[in-house]
Amino acid sequence: MRLSLLILRQSRAKKEVTFSSVLVLVRLPEHSGLGEIITMFRHLRNLQQVSRRTLSSTARRQLENKVPVKQKMFQEDNGMPVHLKGGTTDALLYRATMALTVFGCGYVLYALIDAALPKKKA
Amino acid sequence: MAHQAHAYHMVDPSPWPLTGAIAALLMTSGLAIWFHFHSTTLMTLGLILLLLTMYQWWRDIIREGTFQGHHTPPVQKGLRYGMILFITSEVFFFLGFFWAFYHSSLAPTPELGGCWPPTGITPLDPFEVPLLNTAVLLASGVTVTWAHHSIMEGERKQAIQSLALTILLGLYFTALQAMEYYEAPFTIADGVYGSTFFVATGFHGLHVIIGSTFLAVCLLRQIQYHFTSEHHFGFEAAAWYWHFVDVVWLFLYVSIYWWGS
Q1: Where does the UniProt annotation place the signal sequence (chain B)?
Q2: B1-69 placed in CATH 1.10.287.70
Q3: Would you list the domain boundaries of chain B?
Q4: What is the pTM of this model?
């Protein structure tokens, strides 16, 4: 297996989360010559540019400040308590937690009473 | 929507104190059932319930503070008192284990060979991994302070970087300590030396994990724009806790690792 270390440099554009240089460990096919290496390098550069465009646009979307939206949602005068005010997911999670709580209560009572009663050995 | 004529926070009715109490019941009873009947079901159920309770309770606190604006200055003052008192209680928790260590090590019994470390115990070299661990935690104290100043100065990117670095250092400490535990030439069953060593350092390690988790939550919140340069108490609480963890390690290092060898 032939391995080659390529150091790729990119220009740091404004408002993009990019690295100034990227270290890439590449596995080369056996018997690859200089021509193949250059082609592979070109492919990698293209891939980088595409991923950079994709990453930066999604990154910008992900890092948007959603606090004002949340503030509006949680300050809505709908009478809901804070633990259910987020929507359906809140209700599902609450029901699951309460179900486990009730079941757990019953199970612990059973387990402790069973542990407390002497068992006759057959 | 605000109908109150005061600055204090009258919380909405919440189910989490109940679910948390039941979780504690299930965990403790589950521990007893595990010891006597080899079944971990009850204890596992308790742990799941505990995790669910913690997630939802603290999620609600974030909603009340960041999204509903309930954390006014007097409320924040109360939260500060609360965190300080909690950390103080943790200090007393560790004081007990240090008391146990000094009780046994200052006057070693004839059963130990009348010496400390006891006969047959090869202690860890304090100038190897333990010293590295000390450097790691001290460095993390610097990075968390850097994060705090970055938040106060509105330097978003630096705050994220320094907070991430703090967490990485915490994880590095945990990994190193786990490796030390695996490689140690003595175990928890090796008399009072083993007991005091692993219980004290073990509880400390647990607190490092808790502190790292707290900081990780703060990192997520910082990324999501929850903190402002004036109001970021969640982060401050995490930073106080982290400094406490650091100081406990320093005492552990000097007492158990260094003097105790």
Answers
A1: none
A2: yes
A3: 1-69, 71-256
A4: 0.82
